[in-house]
TrEMBL record:
<feature type="domain" description="MARVEL">
    <location>
        <begin position="25"/>
        <end position="144"/>
    </location>
</feature>
<protein>
    <submittedName>
        <fullName>CKLF3 protein</fullName>
    </submittedName>
</protein>
<dbReference type="GO" id="GO:0016020">
    <property type="term" value="C:membrane"/>
</dbReference>
<dbReference type="Pfam" id="PF01284">
    <property type="entry name" value="MARVEL"/>
</dbReference>
<feature type="transmembrane region" description="Helical">
    <location>
        <begin position="95"/>
        <end position="114"/>
    </location>
</feature>
<keyword id="KW-0812">Transmembrane</keyword>
<dbReference type="InterPro" id="IPR050578">
    <property type="entry name" value="MARVEL-CKLF_proteins"/>
</dbReference>
<feature type="transmembrane region" description="Helical">
    <location>
        <begin position="120"/>
        <end position="140"/>
    </location>
</feature>
<keyword id="KW-0472">Membrane</keyword>
<keyword id="KW-1133">Transmembrane helix</keyword>
<feature type="transmembrane region" description="Helical">
    <location>
        <begin position="57"/>
        <end position="75"/>
    </location>
</feature>
<dbReference type="InterPro" id="IPR008253">
    <property type="entry name" value="Marvel"/>
</dbReference>
<feature type="transmembrane region" description="Helical">
    <location>
        <begin position="33"/>
        <end position="51"/>
    </location>
</feature>
Length: 161
């Protein structure tokens, strides 16, 4: 009897492998930030479900779904396929609003409510605020370089025509 090779037995089927994001994207800074945003938003969502201010769970759920959508959109390179949207601007606006919303509801959760789940959600919310702020700072730098490139090309092209 021959023993099956461990590499063949441990390898997942090709169908499941296609659902996972590529390793290059997971090692990239954008992939790590989007993964951290998704995980933090999910943890905050779970904490708000178990806490007194359950109305705050809607913000965490929406941010979780948006971060998860952009994670898989960037991982599957939808941003290169759909050129109609300017993806960095959409990502920048999402990050700015998420940082502001998480900061506001974290302050409210920590200062107003005394249960443990609210305090945990507030602490994770402050961490998520920092992660979203880092993401929008990096995305803002990409936007500035794009706008500088676009503004220098536009006036000269109109003057020569």
């Amino acid at each position: 009897m021959e023993e099956p090779e461990p590499a063949e037995a441990a390898a997942p089927p090709p169908g499941l492998r296609s659902l996972l994001p590529p390793r290059e994207f997971l090692c990239a800074r954008k992939g790590q930030l989007l993964l951290a945003e998704s995980v933090l938003s999910f943890i905050i969502f779970i904490c708000y479900i178990a806490s007194v201010p359950t109305a705050f769970m809607m913000a965490a759920l929406l941010e979780f779904l948006l971060a998860l959508f952009l994670f898989f959109a960037y991982a599957s390179k939808l941003n290169e396929k759909f050129k109609g949207l300017y993806w960095p601007l959409m990502d920048f606006l999402r990050c700015v609003t998420a940082a502001i919303i998480y900061f506001a509801i974290s302050i409210a959760a920590v200062s107003k409510y005394s249960d443990g789940a609210s305090k945990a959600a507030g602490v994770f919310g402050f961490i998520a605020t920092i992660v979203y702020a880092i993401d929008f700072y990096i995305t803002f730098n990409d936007l500035v370089t794009f706008l500088k490139q676009g503004s220098s090309d536009s006036p000269e092209g109109h003057k020569s025509e």
